[in-house]
Structures are given as C-alpha cells and as structure tokens.
Specification:
Elements lengths: L23 H14 L7 E7 L5 E7 L2 E3 L2 E7 L3 H8 L2 E8 L4 E11 L2 H10 L2 H9 L9 H14 L11 E6 L3 E6 L7 E7 L5 E5 L3
Antiparallel strand pairs: 1-2, 1-5, 3-4, 4-7, 5-6, 6-7, 6-8, 8-9, 9-10
Helix pairs in contact: 4-5
C-alpha cells in the first residue's frame, strides 16, 4: 500500500457550535434536518455499539427508523448478534457521522424492545423484497454459500405470491432512550466544539462543554 496513513488529515472549518439549545432533542432535530438536506446518501445511518455476555464490544451500522423524546428506534433480526448482545446487556451507544457537515452526534442509554404493534406497523411499510429478506436471512449465522440465500428467497417469493408477508416472530425493533448525548462540530486545529447533556433524576437535561 502506497498511502501514507499517518498523514491523512483534514482541517475542519464548515461551522461552529458556540451555543446549543438547552433541549438536546430540539438540537438533534435541527442537525438531523441539516443532514437530510445535505449531500448525504443515508443521513439516518448510525453506528450501534453493544457488549456481549463476555464483555466484548461490537459495533455495526444500522438505520434510524424514528425518534421522539422517548428515544431512537431501529429494527433488526432479534436473534442476530446485536440482538443477543442486547438481550444480555440492554445498554448501548449510537453515533451519527455526517462528514459533509463535519458533525457527529453520540447517544448512550438503555435499550428496550418496541411493542409488537409498532413492529407490525413498520414491517407493513417495508418494501416487499425487504419483508421477504427478513424471512430469508438467518442473520449473523454461518452459511455455506450465497446460493442458500438465493434459493430460500426464491422459495419465499413463490410461497407468498399474492399474499401479504407477515412479520417474522424473531424480527422487531428497539428503542434506545438516551441518558447522555453529545454534539460534536469539527473545528480548525483539532479544537473541536463539543456540547454534551446528562439526563438528571428530575427529567431535566444538564448541558456542559467538553474539551476536544
């Protein structure tokens, strides 16, 4: 490899974060709207970090599928590795990275499964191919080759021809209810702006600035 990795650098100068709204949800709504308006293919992509029963961390990118003041929602095969991690340790972290805006947002908090009726409603909104894909893939399990998936998918296409595709019993959603949130704005000289929030026992948020 001829790339000098140690000298891959970029000086951030897109914006500042001198003040933020006292309410982190208002601030997140503003930044998420900015991300949706920016040239970002999937502004709802976020890294989900979990811990398994042995205490080993893991991380992967998932898609945000809704948020409100109760938390951030995402969906997956609940027998997957992330689902197993959350069953053992229902606490996680989420990170959004919006490179064109030189911004990231971080969340930490407990994770709970979404009610079945919410999962059913979202599953009905998915494209039919994605619905069939949820039945096709034994997510995170070892398979001999790709042909297994293709044959299973073709079988399901025939099986559900002309029928609604039901939600698999092992497929559902989660809500991360943050107790800590951080907004990060890249700045020159690596003197980035970082404003964080802690959820207090009375439900209020304490805002403070962090050194970069």
């Amino acid at each position: 490899m001829n790339v000098d990795v140690a000298n891959l650098r970029w000086d951030y100068n897109q914006d500042t974060l001198l003040t933020a709204d006292p309410d982190p949800w208002v601030q997140f709504e503003r930044w998420f709207a900015d991300a949706c308006a920016a040239p970002i293919r999937e502004p709802n992509a976020m890294t989900l970090a979990t811990v398994d029963v042995q205490g080993n961390p893991d991380a992967r990118v998932v898609l945000l599928k809704g948020f409100d003041r109760s938390g951030l929602q995402f969906y997956t095969n609940m027998t997957s590795r992330k689902g197993q991690d959350l069953a053992h340790h229902p606490y996680a972290a989420l990170v959004f990275w919006w490179e064109p805006l030189e911004r990231q947002v971080r969340f930490r908090g407990p994770v709970t499964p979404l009610p079945a009726e919410e999962c059913d409603a979202y599953f009905r909104q998915r494209p039919r191919e994605s619905q069939l894909g949820a039945w096709t893939s034994p997510q995170s399990q070892e398979i001999p080759d790709r042909r297994v998936l293709e044959e299973r998918f073709a079988q399901l296409v025939r099986e559900y021809d002309g029928k609604d595709v039901p939600r698999p019993p092992y497929w559902g959603g989660y809500r991360l209810s943050p107790v800590w949130i951080e907004f990060w704005q890249g700045r020159p000289s690596r003197l980035h702006d970082r404003i964080a929030y802690d959820l207090q026992p009375d439900g209020a948020w304490r805002q403070y600035r962090l050194a970069p």
